[in-house]
Automatic annotation (TrEMBL):
Residue span(s) of domain Roc: 325-606
Record-linked Gene3D superfamilies: P-loop containing nucleotide triphosphate hydrolases, Toll/interleukin-1 receptor homology (TIR) domain, Winged helix-like DNA-binding domain superfamily/Winged helix DNA-binding domain, YVTN repeat-like/Quinoprotein amine dehydrogenase
GO cellular component terms, semicolon-separated: cytosol; transferase complex
Pfam families: COR-A, Roc, TIR_2, WD40
Segments of skewed composition (Acidic residues): 972-981
Lineage summary: Eukaryota, Sar, Stramenopiles, Bigyra, Labyrinthulomycetes
EC numbers for this chain: 2.7.11.1
Entry keyword set: ATP-binding, Kinase, Nucleotide-binding, Repeat, Transferase, WD repeat
Protein name as catalogued: non-specific serine/threonine protein kinase
Statement: the UniProt record of this protein carries the keyword Magnesium: no
Catalytic activity: L-seryl-[protein] + ATP = O-phospho-L-seryl-[protein] + ADP + H(+); L-threonyl-[protein] + ATP = O-phospho-L-threonyl-[protein] + ADP + H(+)
Length: 1162
């Protein structure tokens, strides 16, 4: 414990305690009032200067710079809630019954629920809140514009109910009770107003500028350098002048006869102290500075014991259950990836303190293990964590609730004193939980069962343990390194809630550098694609090998992979490396101790870990796991959720648990959506019986039962050609859930129907369904196919180019799956596709084409004699887009066209299309050669390759069929009518529109909006709207908005694929050609390209429409005030004056109607 440093910014007091918040050293200190012993000294939880403090019984609320706000249990010095929402300094805090009220320089007043920690109200004060006082529904705000504003907290009025303008200097302090309100200001006056009329009744002249005021009963106390004055509020008489502080008094508090004050300055003046005075006599009773004798705080606070405590525990437990109190799960998915035999499983064993295994027992598919951060021992049970969290939230409720009835509640002084600090500007990411709504009570556990199931003593034991210091539970996903399994990875590498461990063998990196770097680069790219912000821990195994030089390894990682620039890589600070070396062969059980620390720290940094979810969600999971099924229909989950009154959140809760690796719920197709896999290991085991590497299949190959069933040939066929008979699948899956598994694989594009006869395989069982598992072809080659492709007479060629990032494994295989499915449905059954690992010849009804994968490109070549080459290309591009959107959502790619006249010229499709629109004759190829636009005409014979249902004609007659990719172009439609297959064709599973996340984002929106009437564009304009957004966190949302507007017939100028590097002139052209400018507001929107676009829109005098991210759980969410703050000066008025539309992901009809109406009216 030590002397206070810097300024005492705020003091508070209760009957027993004196508290001080200090900005100089960032501490909260607490003394016993009775004998002046120091009973608590703690750093602010965020290590920021403490700005403000309030106390009520055993609870303190502390506000800090940069938006920190914490509810602290003084008895245990633990943080009960970190109240996240303010984005700037919190200057005032009030504990008001079951609510906490805070005021900040972010121009908001926020009201929080003390029990749940949720924000229940935000008032836009429209001015920096320097001081705040509250009485019942009145909130009084002091600000630097010399004005006192009175808000009404009950009616949520945005505008102040009263504006008091009498002060002639900055108002620094306010205090209020049932009778009076007092303000203090730089004009050296204390003004006294009557409550509730807010009539000015008295002006008191202070000695200097007033820094703080407090009032209670008939006394007012004001602080102003160098004195503190006690006034008689009834007549304005000075009762006492309290002299003793020799530096500025910043803060003062009044409770009964006690005045507490605090002084100091950052220059380190002699008087940095907290003083206690007697308001009746004016005598100084105590001077406190942090060097006092120490006494345990429990002796001062006292606590309920025995039966009273147990009864209290029962009460809070029942209340927590009935209300579904929010819990922080403390769960994390740890995903271990890397090259085959790199030492992944060995590293997991090291983490779990298990003995090393020298033999390489290669992992098949994915192996799941569970553990927790404290023990690092394997936990065998599948556990929802429900009971643990019930104890935790009940203990929290107990700590937060009013003191036991035996203690008389103390009156809370409704005054809070603050001063202005010109301190560093800080910002905090808002991940505010949605507003807490008092919900219907639900019986989560039947009354009769509560006492049987829970030990009340557990709650008492937990008291003081905060949610945030609970241990983290991990689900470890140890992925197999063999590349056939990569096809699964894209499904199971999740985006949020996870930490990645990329494991490599250091010896291998040093001896076979090129190959090892290639693998590492592949893994780093894969993680970046799937989870762009997830922490990545690089682990180098084989540290025991004599020749490993860590510095050399580090140099390769930096030189070849720029790991030092990858901000997601977790540094090994102790060793000053970017990776963690490990000897997995050591018999030391703690050989992974540093790695464990890194994993724990990375996991606790994840936002999902601190996200609060209702106990109801957890009960749904708990009940689901009790069913003891490997998978259940979505409906079952929904029914349970409905039972606990969270039916409408079923989707959201499943997605949350999926991201944490606790269950699997995919959504790309109906079948996937309709099933929730509760035992992921079961699913992974089943999948990897089919998708397996050669080194894993011997067990199956020599299985007697395979031979007894006469399926050896079937198995060979699967391994050789990727074609599986239904009988074989039945065998591999032990005849369990075969339909579901086939549907699941089909939905995940891991399997497609093989409609082509395989007589030699199925003789005698011709009607047996066959399937293609295209990822098994990965390493297959065929000289015959090579020759045939080389002989093809090619008409048109286009290229799916991924060289801007990389081409992940599985893209080509999935495209093959889709082509095979389509060819089977619409093609000639007699002409089976010819397939190999990276090339294929496929026949559609009107065309034959070759597919070929080279390093980062997929080439699509249509044979010259094909009847509708452009239509086929369009279909294929549509298919790819569907696969990309469903499985590789953020994968950057570009469509290139090969000039039919010059095979060496590849031009970006967009460039060619733009050149055609603008009438340009030539276009630059990717190698910067001038190429004739006319050469590319054959690609446009059937309309644009990118066009889908944008045209307004299609919209008018929109039917479900229009969302079928294979009917996207009219010419194809006409052709299809020639065939009989069309009517029976069921291709919905492969419908890109279905898979592009629409289902996920907005399953209620059918996209048919005949009722919206569009205005014809005025002459000279080409677009209804120019859509401007920040790529980083709004791209997906804006893709959706653009899609939806376009499907409603609007012409939208939208930079869909860009990296935000458009030339200014291109922007200007786009904005000029647009009727209005639509800005999508998301976090940090006013940067880079958006700033330029906004500036141009203002220069061009385009009407500006605003839509903002509305979901606090999205990364792009910030409060509206921060948009106003961060907007450029000349655009601030737009944000203040025009009403921004909150973006809706569900029930979107009204949103789009509203938006289109505004576009029409602009
Ligand atoms: N000497 C030494 N051997 C190691 C170390 N880590 C792993 N090994 C050995 O390397 C081989 C492969 O280790 P695994 O942990 O099974 O590798 P994996 O990455 O899980 O392999 P797959 O599951 O097939 O992808 C085993 O024989 C291990 O004993 C290490 O730090 N030092
Ligand atoms: Mg393994």
């Amino acid at each position: 414990m030590g002397r206070i440093l810097g300024t005492v910014d705020c003091v508070a007091q209760s009957a027993d305690l004196v508290l001080a918040a200090t900005s100089g050293d960032g501490y909260l200190r607490v003394w016993s009032k009775e004998e002046g012993a120091l009973v608590l000294e703690m750093k602010t939880p965020n290590n920021m200067p403490a700005n403000t403090v309030a106390v009520q019984d055993n609870l303190a609320a502390v506000g800090t710079l940069a938006g920190g706000l914490f509810l602290i249990d003084l008895g245990t010095s633990s943080v009960l809630h970190a109240l996240v929402g303010h984005t700037d300094h919190v200057n005032s805090v009030i504990l008001d019954g079951n609510q906490i009220i805070s005021g900040s320089e972010d121009q908001t007043i926020r009201v929080w629920d003390r029990i749940s920690g949720r924000e229940i109200l935000t008032i836009d004060a429209q001015v920096e809140v320097k001081a705040l006082a509250a009485h019942k529904k009145l909130l009084v705000v002091a600000s630097q514009d010399n004005i006192v504003r009175v808000f009404d907290r009950a009616t949520r009025h945005r505008r102040p109910r009263r504006v008091l303008r009498q002060a002639t200097g900055k108002v620094t302090a306010v205090a209020i009770d049932a009778q009076r309100m007092a303000s203090g200001s730089y004009d050296r006056k204390v003004r006294v107003y009557a409550v509730p009329s807010f009539r000015l009744v008295r002006v008191l002249k202070a000695d200097g500028i007033v820094t703080c005021v407090a009032l209670e009963g008939d006394r007012i106390v004001s602080a102003s350098f160098p004195t503190i004055t006690v006034w008689d509020a009834r007549n304005g008489d000075t009762l006492h002048v309290l002299q003793g502080h020799s530096s500025i008094v910043w803060t003062v508090s009044l409770l009964g006869p006690d005045v507490v004050s605090g002084s100091g300055n950052s220059a380190g003046s002699a008087d940095i102290s907290v003083r206690v005075w007697d308001a009746e006599t004016g005598a100084l009773t105590r001077v406190l500075n942090g060097t006092e004798a120490v006494r345990p705080i429990e002796e001062v606070l006292g606590a309920a014991t025995g039966a009273a405590a147990s009864a209290a525990a029962e009460k809070v437990l029942k209340a927590a259950l009935a209300n579904g109190d929010p819990a922080e799960l403390g769960r994390c998915k740890l995903m271990i990836v890397g090259q085959c035999a790199a030492g992944k499983t060995s590293t997991v064993r090291s983490l779990l303190g298990m003995a090393p295994v020298e033999e390489h027992i290669s992992t098949v598919g994915v192996e799941l293990k569970r553990t927790d951060a404290e023990s690092w021992e394997e936990i065998k049970d599948l556990d929802s964590g429900f009971e643990r969290q019930v104890y935790r939230v009940a203990a929290l409720r107990m700590a937060v609730q009013e003191q036991a009835a035996s203690k008389t509640p103390q009156s809370t002084p409704m005054r809070i004193c603050r001063k202005a600090s010109n301190l560093v500007f800080g910002r905090r990411r808002s991940s505010a939980a949605r507003p807490f709504v008092a919900e219907v009570q639900v019986e989560l556990v039947p009354e009769a069962e509560v006492a049987q199931r829970f030990e009340y003593a557990e709650i008492e034991d937990m008291a003081g343990k905060t949610q945030s210091d609970q241990k983290i539970y991990f689900t470890i996903w140890d992925f197999a390194g063999q590349d056939v399994f990569y096809a699964l990875h894209h499904i199971f590498l999740t985006r949020e809630g996870g930490v990645f461990m990329v494991v490599f063998d250091m010896q291998e990196l040093l001896s076979k550098q090129e190959r090892a770097v290639e693998y590492l680069s592949f893994w780093l790219n894969s993680v970046k694609l799937r989870a762009p912000t997830a922490p990545i821990i690089l682990v180098g195994t084989h540290y025991d090998e004599a020749s490993v030089d860590l510095n050399e390894v580090e140099e390769i990682l930096i030189g070849q992979l720029s790991v030092d620039e990858n901000e997601n890589i977790v540094p090994n600070s102790r060793a000053s490396l970017n990776f963690f070396p490990i000897d997995n062969m050591s018999s030391e059980p703690d050989r992974a101790s540093e790695l464990r620390v890194a994993v724990e720290a990375s996991a606790s940094s994840l936002e999902s870990g601190s996200r609060k979810i209702s106990l109801r969600w957890l009960k749904v999971l708990d009940d689901l796991l009790m069913l003891d099924c490997d998978h259940v229909p979505f409906k079952a989950a929904q029914e349970l959720a409905t039972k606990y009154h969270v039916g409408e959140q079923t989707d959201e809760l499943l997605s949350f648990f999926h991201e944490l690796g606790m269950l699997v719920h995919l959504r790309a197709t109906d079948v996937l959506y309709d099933n929730v896999v509760l035992n992921p290991q079961w699913l992974l085991n089943k999948l990897s019986r089919v998708i397996a590497d050669d080194i894993h299949v011997d067990q199956i190959r020599y299985d007697h039962e395979l031979q007894n069933a006469g399926l050896e040939k079937d198995f060979e066929w699967l391994r050789k050609c990727g074609i599986a008979t239904l009988s074989l699948l039945r065998f591999l899956w032990n005849d369990e859930e075969v339909d579901f598994l086939v549907d699941f694989m089909r939905g995940a594009m891991l399997l497609s129907d093989w409609a082509f006869p395989e007589e030699s395989l199925t003789s005698g069982r011709q009607s047996e369904p066959l399937y293609l598992v295209s990822s098994l072809l990965k390493n297959s080659t065929s000289a015959e196919l090579d020759a045939e492709i080389a002989d093809m007479d090619i008409g048109l060629t286009c290229v799916l180019d991924f060289s801007k990032f990389f081409l992940p494994d599985g893209v080509f295989a999935r495209l093959l799956s889709l082509c095979v499915q389509y060819s089977g449905n619409f093609g000639a059954i007699s002409r089976a596709p010819q397939l190999a690992g990276n090339q294929a010849i496929v026949h559609f009804n009107f065309s034959d084409f070759a597919l070929k994968q080279t390093k980062n490109k997929i080439w699509i070549r249509i044979e010259r004699k094909s009847r509708k080459p452009a239509s086929t290309l369009k279909t294929l591009v549509g298919m790819f887009r569907g696969a990309r959107n469903a499985i590789f959502r953020d994968l950057p790619w570009e469509l290139l066209l090969q000039s039919p006249k010059d095979a060496s010229a590849l031009c970006a499709y967009d460039e060619v299309a733009r050149a055609r629109t603008s009438g340009a004759d030539s276009v630059l190829s990717t190698s910067k050669r001038i190429t004739s636009v006319a050469d590319f005409d054959p690609f446009f014979h059937d309309g644009s390759l990118e066009e889908d249902e944008k045209g307004s004609e299609t919209v008018e007659q929109a039917t479900a069929a229009d969302f079928d990719p294979f009917r996207q172009d009219d010419s194809l439609k006409e052709d299809e009518t020639d065939t009989e297959t069309v009517e029976q064709a069921s291709v919905a599973d492969f419908d890109p529109h279905f898979q592009d996340g629409l289902l996920q984002e907005d399953e209620n929106d059918t996209g048919t909006v005949e009722q919206v009437s569009l205005q014809v564009l005025p002459a000279g304009l080409e677009y209804h709207v120019y859509l401007s957004h920040r790529q980083r966190n709004a791209r997906e949302t804006c893709n959706l908005i653009a899609d939806k507007l376009e499907s409603r017939g609007l012409k939208v100028w939208y930079d869909r694929e860009s990296r935000g590097d458009l030339a200014k002139e291109v922007m200007r052209r786009g904005i000029r050609a647009s009727k209005c400018y639509l800005l999508f507001l998301s976090k940090s929107v006013f940067m880079g390209a958006v700033l330029m676009e906004l500036e141009i829109a203002l220069q061009e005098k385009k009407p500006v429409l605003l839509v903002h991210e509305n979901d606090p759980d999205r990364a792009g969410f910030v409060t509206f005030t921060s948009y106003i703050e961060s907007a450029p000066k000349d655009a601030k008025h737009l944000l203040r004056e025009s009403e921004s539309i909150p973006f809706q992901r569900r029930l979107t009809e009204h949103f789009y109607e509203q938006l289109i109406a505004r576009i029409n009216a602009s």
